[in-house]
Fold this sequence. Notes:
The chain is α/β, with parallel strands linked by helices and 420 residues long. 39% of the residues lie in helices and 11% in strands.
Amino acid sequence: MNDKNRKNLGIYLRQKRESLGADIPQFARFLGMRESQCSNAKIEDWENGLAEPSRRLMDFIDSIPDFRRAGKDKALFKFIDLFAGIGGVRIPFDELGGECVFTSEWDKFAQRTYAFNFGEIPHGDITKIGSHEIPSHDLLLAGFPCQAFSQAGLRRGFADTRGTLFFEVHRILAHHRPRAFLLENVKQLRGHDKGRTLQTILNVLRGDTSALLPDDIELSDEARDSLGNQLNYDVDYRVLSSNHFGVPQRRERIYIVGFEKSLVGKDGEGLATKILDSVSDNRAHTRLGDVLEEGSKIRERYTISDRLWEGHQRRLIKHRAKGNGFGFSLFNKESEYCNTISARYYKDGSEILIDQSHLGLNPRKLTPRECARIQGFPESFNLRAASDPQLYKQFGNSVSVPVIRAIAAEMVRALANGND
């Protein structure tokens, strides 16, 4: 490549980086390069026309969509997106005129999918980001990690460092005092430790008690220092299922809504309850076939092997003999909805297999696009940033967008009424 072409390439690479709002170290991490001065210098050389990326990196950079960096001057509200995953919680709040002023997600593959869809690379580990580094905001959104409370995990709760990440939410709420928040977690949080874990969370959010944790439970320094800072929110929760909101997946999750008590005032007591009651009435008829893809290429790529299918059937027989309900689950076009997709779906697809016996074929797994659909993501959602296994993990860890949309509409309406 001659000097002129290399210079033009450098301009192109700088534009790609800046379109994501990334500095050079962020861009290096996003590309999967080692965090070092050497990596930073390499990108500087690319942008100055002194060197060029490998073909593999160049192909990935070419695939990054072009985003125009433009803030929302007339944003109706500002929000932050914590433990953001691939942005499922963000989508409805963007639609309603909000401006996302800060995002955090530690998984590098989820960061890529997020960047390909929102034009920004999320900040990393929230435990290493000071509350003062986060811009002020009206709404805090957080699908804080659920493995510590889930059936798939060990259900260790606050004894698990993933469970203590709730207290990172607490210290940010205590520092910024946003007007409202929305938290999402697995249904099992409701029954964890006989309900005591959830009650602790609610009490802390309401300001009925200070947060207390033994010294031997790992927390960031700022989160521990903030434990004594009491909050003051009107809070309630509900367990809602995604199939009631128009997507053919039964996915029950707990949603916790809170409004600053000084905002809602005496007449507004129970505002969180009213909002959750209103969305709890949602009911929708769904059909799995409405989201399934067709075609020989789909069948060829996603039909499971004879060996895997035989293993699934063998394990089902063993589980039935033991009297438990474990094993694969088979669905077809006429199924009203499927099971909950989990982050482990990439392993064998056992929780949701699509029947193809009418074609004389083994069952098949869902495609990543079908996973996006049963979670309610728009058809425009970009899936090119990650491999199929990573996409399965991402959608398995994500939220049901239509449920968030229903709650978001009520929350934003309440905030607007509070401004009147």
